[in-house]
Please model this.
Amino acid sequence: MSVSLPTPSPVSIGLAGPVLRSLSSARQIFALYPSGHPHRREALRELLTAVRALQAAMGTDPALIVARHSIYLGPTLLSRESLSLFRLVDALERAGVVSLEFTTATTEDDLGQLVQLVEGERPLAERLGGIRCNRLLPPEDDGDASDVDLTDLRRAYAMGLEVLRETAVRVSSGKPVDLASATAVVEQLTDEVANAPANALLLTTVKSYDEYTYYHMLNVGLLSIALGQAIGLRRDQVVSLGLGGLLHDVGKVHMPEDVLFHVGKLSEEQWRIVQKHPVDGASLVFGTQEGLFHPAATVVLEHHAAYDLSGYPRLSHRPHPSVPARLVSVADCFDAITSKRAYRAASARRDALGILESGMGRGFDPRVVRVFVGLLGLFPVGSLVRLTSDEIGLVVRNHDRLLARPTVLIVLDAAGNVAEPEERDLTTELPDGRFRWHVASTVDADALGLDVMTFLTTGEIAPAPEQPPTGLVHEPSYGELLPDGYVDTHNTGHVHHHDLPDGGRLDPDVHPGIDDSSLGGGGGG
Model:
């Protein structure tokens, strides 16, 4: 039936995310544990709590609508969830779900029936207890929104998020990391990055403060793939590198939330937990193939070791970490610096490149940093810039030679109003040979109140979602100011070496070698 649904408030939109993430998590729990297992009941309890919070915020029965491979809260597109919960949206569509209305009579058992419906274990019905199904029609498609040509890449990105969520659930339940699924996603991402590298770099601007670790791992994987392709690695080498980037922080799945979300100064013991994640992660990856040294294990172990080995864990028998770890460490630093942390605001993408450059020779391989800076450009793809015309543009491509003259997509006009998206090539000249447009300055998306993710996924300008007052705890990068109370627990007089067995030598049958020759020239100072 056609019903006029009220436009939800920003608070309600923010609370729809936990409902959908809890539903997605419940699907994974139901797949891992048998009927009657307490983990199933706990997952349904969390889902009902999220539903009740949304009901309270809306003051009415929340209506989730599935249409065009996306999900809506009433008439409002949930662009972030449509991207990040692709598998859930796909499962809802396969189950024939068009709309779900959660009445106040909804119970945990009703939600259990919904999970079974989504999993194909029960037929679609008009009601699942207090949940009404398919009473509402989807909103009409006005055909005006542009997806900025990211459809296939978005699908691969969403699959990557799902794989990382499933990895966390598997590890928490004592099961090994599914390297086959992770590799399949990296292979797809590798092909998409090769087809549209600028679009891939745009997508790495996507951040989430509810699922920071998953988005960070995926962004680092994407950046590592782009970096590997930029230095001319073979496809199998790029896939190997991208897998290490994707899984580099897998050791954090064991990190207590009171450490990861800690507000204020961390204790020495808390920093010890943070700095243990490379060893924990390498153990998880290494444990998936008994007797083989998987190439991702060295990246996971060494990505914080630093170019001059002054980082952690302490390595021996070599002058530098492995080349894949050096590549991933640069991507890791860049994404972390451009994300909000518990001890400081996010840095602009251009400023982040400056921090990388200041850490060359100590924290980072100078050759890798130079390639990375060349890849992202003077105004990195995904940056917002103010032109001398006072218009605001999103950098979508960089010029091969004229690094100060990218191509931008105009998003706000000179008066600050939403503009019809229009590409501007800043190399365009006037009849007298002068350039028509110039970059006046970079601008912060948060300061403008713009949600870059919504623009990338729908082509529409929307206000940025509310963020928590503090960000996530992450190891400070070389070139950054250290947070108050920071402790390098590997420099407290008790040095522990954490090399992989046999010096980290990899099985040549499974490892496509990436060494210093891949970076061109010799040792790089």
Remarks:
- The two ends are 68 Å apart (CA to CA).
- Residues 248 and 300 are 4 Å apart (CA to CA).
